[in-house]
Each structure stands twice: as C-alpha cells, then as structure tokens.
C-alpha cells in the first residue's frame, strides 16, 4: 500500500516542473533567434491520485508495478500552431540528451476511434533526489491548438458518460474531430500560400533596384 502519496509523487512533481521549464525554453530560443517557434505553449501536470487509482483498477496495474507500468503519472503537453510543427518538435525531442525516448505513439496518422489526435512520446527522465538519481516515466503529448481544443472539450464532456458516449454523440464528436483536422490543414495551406507570396514580394524590390 502506498501510504504517503505526496511522498510517492514528489519525484513526478519535480520532473514535471523541470520539463515544463526545459520545453518552454525551446520557444524562448526560437524567439531569440527571430524564427517562428514550433512550440506555442507548454502545460504539465501530475496525474491526480484519484485518476491514478481509477486507472490502476481499469488497467489492472498493481501498486508495485505503478512506477514501471503507468506512463503518464507525469504528463506534459506541447501545443503547436501547425501539424508540421508537431513533427519538428518530435525531432527536437529525439535529439535531446537529457531524456530517453522509450515509446512513440502517433495518434495523428492512427486516429483513435474516439476521433482523438495527438503525438505521444513516453520518456524516461532523470531527477536528482536526496538519495540519488531516480528515473521517472513521463508522457509528452504533442498536438496542434485545434487538436487540443477538440481533446479538451471531448474530455470534459466525457465526464458525464465516463468516456462512453452514446453512438449518436460519438459520431458527432468524430466528425467534429475531422472538422478540427480540416481546419489544421487549411491553416497550413494558408501559411504555405503566404510564404510563397512573400517570396514574390521579396524578389520585387530586388528586381526593381536592378532596373
Ligand atoms: P488525463 O486527464 O489527460 O490524464 P488510456 O490512458 O488507457 O486511455 P494509454 O495507452 O495508457 O491509454 O495511453 P494513451 O492512449 O497513449 O494516452 C492516454 C492519454 O491520452 C489520456 O490520459 C488523455 O490525456 C489522452 N487521450 C487518449 N485518448 C483520448 C481521447 O479519446 N480523448 C481525449 N480527450 N484524450 C485522450 P487520461 O488518463 O485519459 O486523462
């Protein structure tokens, strides 16, 4: 029995706080370099005790397997403007030496039956505790603002039905997820058109000067 949950969760709190600062640093660096940041904003949380206990029952996770088997006690979310940014962030994470990627789940190419889209990365992250280093599992979810909009609302609506929506509502949520993804695609297309026309604009003054 975990008797002191606060003590058990302490390294997870530490990991979430450290990772929030580090991942927000990506945005700061891009801004400093005057380049568009693939990271829009970052959030993080330690799973509430009640949710951990509920998931232990649902996924048959014994208490002594919690640290090894529950991957999202420490959770980070990275929100991006564009779908391409997600893959850029994933590449940046793959290059980092301060965490080890254990698993990747692409729920963008493989949309969940619920209509959920995001890119999940499970990492092992070392925190320094008073009795030495402890490696913590953390789940980093990378998604666009539109994917986050859908997931946030679907999650809060799900409370009423414990996530098991009636068929008709399920269909509507799936279609809403498709609509959010079409919005993502249109925004990317608009961005591409703008950068193309910007290219034309740049060439005009140069040509004009030559004449
Ligand atoms: P919270 O409140 O976000 O912490 P499982 O947890 O059993 O569903 P698994 O395999 O452990 O699945 O992990 P998975 O599917 O990679 O990620 C689980 C987390 O992804 C969820 O955590 C959600 O954050 C998010 N997620 C997955 N599917 C959905 C979905 O259909 N709708 C929404 N809104 N979010 C989803 P938790 O623990 O459910 O909740």
UniProtKB/TrEMBL annotation:
Origin: domain of life: Bacteria
Biological processes annotated in GO: guanosine tetraphosphate biosynthetic process
Q: So which residues are the signal peptide here?
A: none
> What are the residue boundaries of the RelA/SpoT domain, all occurrences included?
44-165
Q: Does the keyword ATP-binding apply?
A: yes
Cell division in keyword set: no
Among SMART domains, the record links this protein to:
RelA_SpoT
Q: What GO MF terms are annotated?
A: ATP binding; kinase activity
Under the heading InterPro entries, the entry gives:
GTP_Pyrophosphokinase, NT_sf, RelA_SpoT
The record's keywords, sorted A to Z, are: ATP-binding, Kinase, Nucleotide-binding, Transferase
Q: In which pathway does it act?
A: Purine metabolism; ppGpp biosynthesis; ppGpp from GTP: step 1/2
- Record's family? Belongs to the RelA/SpoT family.
Could you describe the subunit structure of this protein? Homotetramer.
The protein's name in its UniProt record: GTP pyrophosphokinase
Q: What is the lineage of its organism?
A: Bacteria, Bacillati, Bacillota, Bacilli, Lactobacillales
């Amino acid at each position: 029995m975990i008797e002191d949950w606060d003590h058990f969760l302490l390294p997870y709190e530490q990991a979430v706080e450290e990772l929030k600062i580090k991942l927000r640093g990506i945005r700061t660096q891009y801004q400093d370099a005057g380049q568009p940041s693939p990271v829009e904003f970052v959030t993080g949380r330690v799973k509430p005790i009640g949710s951990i206990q509920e998931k232990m029952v649902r996924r048959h996770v014994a208490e002594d397997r919690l640290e090894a088997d529950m991957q999202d006690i420490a959770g980070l979310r990275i929100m991006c403007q564009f779908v391409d940014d997600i893959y850029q962030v994933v590449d940046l994470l793959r290059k980092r030496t301060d965490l080890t990627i254990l698993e990747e789940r692409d729920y963008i190419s493989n949309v969940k039956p619920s209509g959920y889209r995001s890119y999940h990365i499970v990492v092992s992250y070392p925190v320094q505790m008073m009795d030495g280093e402890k490696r913590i599992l953390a789940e980093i979810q990378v998604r666009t603002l539109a994917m986050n909009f859908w997931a946030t609302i679907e999650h809060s609506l799900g409370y009423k039905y414990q996530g098991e929506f009636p068929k008709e509502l399920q269909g509507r949520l799936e279609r809403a997820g498709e609509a959010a993804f079409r919005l993502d695609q249109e925004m990317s297309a608009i961005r591409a058109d703008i950068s193309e026309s910007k290219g034309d604009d740049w060439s005009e003054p140069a040509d004009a000067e030559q004449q």
